[in-house]
Design goal:
T-fold, 6 helices, alpha+beta, 253 residues, three-stranded antiparallel β-sheet
């Protein structure tokens, strides 16, 4: 599995957002706020929020190492921080370990905190391919799928009324995250970003070849929480959901 620099973040910019980044240990966030709501102090606020969030999580995990190591649903202690309990519930519904939901959960909590504190009209938080959005207008998102010829050529239009929601992507060929599959990209959108993250990982684990896409998409259809899903393996794609499919040109995204 190769590490890929996050050049796809350049596609998230444009005139709509004022962007900034926040990095705390392994957490690396790209955050965009509508230009009318942006304040320079937001970056400091977000960094402090993420640092406190991580400290609370790490303190608990030090006393419950089984949580971080679990690859199957895991029940944390009642004393666990709320976010860790929410991650565990999301992962239980997807049938995998709770850390599968961590990137989406942090993105969501950070986005909610910024919007609550500053009253922003729109906010987008991207955390390693997992995205939380709260929108006033529709937004197009392309799926990054590494070396696949379909990478950043297909995606979805997110209607504003569907937000806030999470759009998360898991891959067995791109990035450092653990995956037992070989999907180039498995994108899942749910109202809850932690749940979208857990489902994306669980579904991506089941893709070894292009022949796995049709039965997987039938399974995806049975999950009511899934609003939209795209699976990419090599030059094949599976699509599900009510969001409009978008096709992107190389130089016009």
């Amino acid at each position: 599995m190769e590490y890929v620099n996050r050049t796809y973040r350049e596609r998230l910019g444009g005139e709509r957002w004022t962007p900034f980044t926040v990095t705390v240990k392994e957490t690396d966030l790209w955050i965009g706020v509508d230009r009318g709501s942006f304040q320079a102090e937001m970056a400091t606020f977000a960094e402090r929020f993420v640092r406190q969030l991580r400290e609370e999580m790490e303190e608990y995990l030090a006393g419950d190492p089984g949580y971080a190591a679990a690859l199957r649903p895991y029940r944390p202690e009642d004393s666990a921080p709320l976010l860790l309990r929410q991650m565990a519930e999301a992962a239980r519904r997807a049938g995998i370990g709770p850390m599968s939901a961590v990137a989406g959960a942090i993105a969501q909590e950070t986005g909610r905190a910024i919007q609550s504190h500053y009253g922003t009209k729109e906010v987008i938080v991207e955390n390693g391919g997992d995205i939380y959005v709260s929108l006033r207008e529709a937004m197009d998102i392309a799926v990054f799928a590494g070396e696949s010829p379909l990478s950043q050529k297909v995606g979805v239009r997110i209607p504003a009324e569907a937000s806030p929601l999470g759009i998360c992507t898991s891959s067995g060929t791109v990035g450092p995250s653990l995956s037992f599959g070989k999907a180039d990209a498995m994108m899942v959108a749910c109202k809850d970003c932690a749940l979208a993250d857990a489902y994306a990982t669980a579904f991506a684990n089941k893709v070894q070849t292009t022949a796995d896409i049709p039965p997987l998409m039938e399974e995806v259809k049975r999950e009511r929480e899934v609003l939209s899903a795209i699976c990419i393996k090599d030059d094949k794609i599976g699509i599900y959901g009510n969001f409009k499919l978008k096709l992107f040109e190389d130089d016009n995204r």
